[in-house]
Known about the structure:
Blueprint: E1 5-9, E2 14-20, E3 26-33, H1 34-42, E4 48-52, H2 57-66, E5 70-74, H3 76-79, H4 89-100, H5 113-144, H6 154-166, H7 174-207, H8 209-214, H9 222-232, H10 241-248, E6 252-254, E7 263-266, H11 272-292, H12 298-305, H13 308-329, H14 337-342
Amino acid sequence: MQITTVGIDLAKNVFQIHGVNGHGKAVLRKQLRRDQVAPFFANLPPCLVGMEACASAHHWARKLASLGHTVRLMAPQFVKPYVKSNKNDAADAEAICEAVSRPSMRFVPIKNVEQQAVLALHRVRQGFVKARTAQANQIRGLLGEYGVIVPQGIAHVTERVPELIEDASIELPGSFRILIDRLLEHLRLLHRQVDEIEAQIKDWHRSNEASRRLEKVPGIGPITASALVATVGDATNFDNGRQLAAWLGVVPRQHSSGGKQNLLGMSKRGDAYLRTMLIHGARSVIYRATQKADPKNWVFNVTTRRNKNVAAVALANKTARIVWALLVHGREFHAGHSAAAAV
């Protein structure tokens, strides 16, 4: 029984295995407990192993690759069309095994331990930022019930609310003032947590040469640069800059038929966190460009022809292509490079 391709349906405790030989005939269907997976593949001759890019997939990909197997990760939406009939673990493993053998299949780069550690900092920071915003909105909402209106923005909450709860002229119950003070303390704690994690991200950014090079691109700061380097990893996995832009979801969604091209809004595929930061960075660049109003500036010209939201996505697309070129060729960013090349 010569197994050439194996599909694994990952789970928390029970893993489903489906293996085929060189002729595509199923020769292995097996369920494994978590502690049985590594010994099983250690005794299996090197083969192609496919998995969906889901929870713990990168860990198992590194583990099986260290045992001599060729591991490929795939986005779940690309595997779903190969599921036959009803959905269950065995059908999912069979679909993964079939999908990984397709020559046109797109694969997800495997992240190393350092990349996952940096991205964990980003995810935790994102969670603290959301919790901080929710806490500030809760304080504003509770005060609004007593007719005390605080302007939007966390800065207004931290600066004005302590004075308001100390103002005796405002009719607020004593227990309510104590409650708001407790919520303010929680808000300050969340703010400190965000600052501490940002400091860790910036420390990693300063130690990484590729991240420092990306920071020089307009609209990219230390947070965005570190997230791009940790998420993209080896940029040579993309053939060109457009593929990276499409992977980030900042290209038009297409619905064409019969030779008629129909382009819609941006596809919003890929990592929403990266796409959000690139678009927000593009908005800051557009704001500066509209202030200077230089007719030779590409960004300013786009804003005069298109809506600013469209211009922000277009600039994010251009930034993604620049990022690919810098990572692949190891170059430094020069603002006047394109203009000089055109001349």
